[in-house]
Amino acid sequence: MSEYRLLLIEDNPAEAELVEDLLDDCAERGYVVERAGRLREALGLLEERPFDIALLDLGLPDSQGLDTLRLLVESAGGIPVVVMTGHQDRGTGTGAIRLGAQDFLPKEELHPALLARALHYAMERYRSQREVRLMATAFDSAQAIVVTDPQGRILRANHAFTRITGYAEDEVLGKNPRVLQSGRQDLEFYHRLWTELLENDHWEGEIWNRRRDGSVYPQWESISAVRNEAGQLEYFVAVFHDISEQKRLEAELELEATTDRLTGLYNRQRFDAELDRALARTERYASEAGAILFDIDHFKRLNDTHGHDIGDRVLVELSRRVAHSLRRADFLARWGGEEFVVLLPETDAEGARYMAERLRREIAATPFEDAGPVTISLGVTILHRDDDPDTLLKRLDNALYDAKHAGRNCAAYHHRAPGEDADAEAPPLSLLQ
């Protein structure tokens, strides 16, 4: 049996004892009663500990009439109040209701069933009123809120929902939230969402939805199932907010972290991640891919002769020329200093050698403004299924070294036959010039 903490505010000991006896006879629920004979004493008790309900006599030594209720509600408005009145004071009881009391009871009519029922419904009404106020406050939230029935029909949507989606509430009432779906997530995504929601009564995650104007946007959404005391599903409540700005900032930070500031190309960190993916594709699908490592010949001499500003301009212009010569699917990154690296997906050895020679000719063909002729040396190889990043990069570095040793302005190709030991020394060398 549930017990409730009741504050009895009554200065007459006999009447207080009568009320306590009546409460003892309320067999269906129990009350732990504390009594205060004055309003000041009652307010002190309310500050010290929580109560579930207050039963108030309006005629106290330190406060009389409806002012007593007003002071109690203002000072301790967190609990429901039932007022006790005299038989001739029904008008006072009605006034008490207007001031916030949940009910009033003429003392002459008190009996256990009436008292128990009045207290029970006072607490229930108060709880319901609080929930309504809470819901109203929640619906004023900056986050969008949507309430649906168990079948998924929209019952309520707040102003933030309209601001984010462009749909007015009356446009979506009775409809399923599927009207917002963008098509970015597949059926499997929604199957997992509903499975988790129905098993755990909660789901939270990122969804891409479509506004009324057709634009697609990302939102962070939390969906909760609301059940009644019998465990039956009554509502779904979804709360979400637009994370477009957050996504934009994340993309900017990602780009800044993976982009070379001078040339605008990807940096070595981004290349490492792309190489891991390329090797994984090669191993999983037995696909072919080529790789080129190249640098600018005599770049230190160029800097010493023309200055670092001209050197930087050469790096930028060279990056532009190389990027223009590559295919859309190819990946170009600045390796560091005057070194650059290229990944060539779906490219065999012949294609990799051809691309290397094309790049060499493109750079050598046209002098650079204020710097004159510039040439590059290139190391070329292809990716194998059992390669790891260190093995591949070592092979590229050795190929580039051979191109330098052969006189520069050329490409050297290092090839390791499939199945050959990845650490095999002295791989075959061919020069293209």
Characterize the structure shown:
With 433 residues, the protein is an alpha/beta fold. It has three domains: 3-138, Rossmann fold (3-Layer(aba) Sandwich), CATH 3.40.50; 140-243, PAS domain (Beta-Lactamase), CATH 3.30.450.20; 259-432, Reverse transcriptase/Diguanylate cyclase domain (Alpha-Beta Plaits, 2-Layer Sandwich), CATH 3.30.70. It contains 14 helices and 18 strands. A hairpin with a 5-residue loop joins β11 (216-227) and β12. α11 (299-306) packs across α12 and α12 (308-325) packs across α13. The termini are far apart.
Helix content: 40-55%
Could you please say which CATH topology of the largest domain applies here? Alpha-Beta Plaits
Number of strands: 18
CATH class of the largest domain: Alpha Beta
Rounded to the nearest angstrom, the distance between the terminal CA atoms is 95 Å
> For this structure, what is the CATH homologous superfamily of the largest domain?
Reverse transcriptase/Diguanylate cyclase domain
Rg, rounded, reads: 39 Å
What is the molecular shape? elongated
Helix tally? 14
Instruction: Examine the secondary-structure arrangement and name the CATH architecture of the largest domain.
Output: 2-Layer Sandwich
Describe the sheet with the most strands: 6 strands, mixed
Identify low-pLDDT runs. Answer: 422-430
Portion in beta strands = 15-25%
Structural class: alpha/beta
Main β-sheet, spatial strand arrangement: 14-15-13-16-17-18
**Oligomer kind:** single chain
What count of structural domains? 3
Kindly report the average pLDDT value.
89
